[in-house]
Amino acid sequence: MDPTFLILVFLVVVALAFDFLNGLHDAANSIATIVSTRVLSARWAVIWAAFFNFIAFLFFGLHVAKMVGSGIVDPHIISDRLIFAALMGAISWNLLTWWLGIPSSSSHALIGGLVGAAIAKVGGLSAIQWAGLGKTTAGIVVSPTVGFVLALVLVLVVSWTFLKSSPFFADRVFRKLQFVSAALYSLGHGGNDAQKTMGIIAALLFAHGATNEPGHIPFWVVIACQAAMGFGTLFGGWRIVHTMGSKITRLTPMQGFCAETGGAITLFLATHIGVPVSTTHTITGAIVGVGASRRVSAVRWGVAKNIVVAWVITLPAAALTAAVFYYLGFWMR
């Protein structure tokens, strides 16, 4: 069998492994609030999230996939060695932060890995497409900020609407509504995050001449990536669930609904315009927003600060790791 084809298959499997780890690592983003408010047990929450992760391709275009596949680095420099290094850089960082229970961004780990591998290949910054990278890095600030604002506004609107309702009635209503908000957030997660791996595989297929353009996404790639992410979510990320669901701030069902809905709206907007944002950043901003709506001291700012530090170092750390793997991958073309 052609060795080039075997390497292609191997790298597609590695890309799907990253997608699986993305679901495993970021499952907490979709289910932390609904678990912490005890609306669903962890077992049923991951099943709920995994289902909506998988069907997300029915609701969104492939704008994010095309951005990752051709808008971050020059697609004409893509090679097996570069993709291998990018994926290994992202996977290594994901595994480290998952083990430590730090909700870092799988998205920015992948983008950082891609950029680091490209810099290692060309020996400089000439292969970087700055417009696409600029949109992605802007998301580090914009997505949690928008999530924060939307969640805060939703809390104020909902609190005013249910001002005369009894706490028991409001709690019962929002326990039901959290099923909807968690589903919406899982759709946003599956729609934005799974597409990043689609973009990587599409760029790889283009490098092998299997497609005519780097932005073309075969349907089998779409299904494989959505399924890999869904299976990853089924296995959950319990360490990060604990951080997201209880360490930052304590949540009621109403606050969980507002956080998930604010985060979902942010992800829907980003996916629609083709910007690969971090679901981790988005939901963290939303959770901080609902916590701050009570009082500033309700947020454990020390935990939030540690998460922000992880955000800042994810891109360069994954890039550096990918560059190391690029030099280790000398046996690839």
Describe what you observe in this structure:
By secondary structure, the chain is mainly alpha-helical. It has twelve helices and no strands. The chain has helices spanning 3-36, 42-54, 63-70, 80-100, 106-122, 130-161, 167-207, 219-235, 238-247, 253-273, 279-294, 301-328. The radius of gyration is 19 Å and the shape is elongated. The relative contact order is 0.23.
Sequence-ordered SSE layout with sheet pairings:
Elements: H1 3-36, H2 42-54, H3 63-70, H4 80-100, H5 106-122, H6 130-161, H7 167-207, H8 219-235, H9 238-247, H10 253-273, H11 279-294, H12 301-328
Helix pairs in contact: 1-2, 1-4, 1-7, 1-8, 1-9, 1-11, 2-7, 2-8, 3-7, 4-5, 4-12, 5-12, 6-10, 6-11, 7-8, 7-10, 10-11
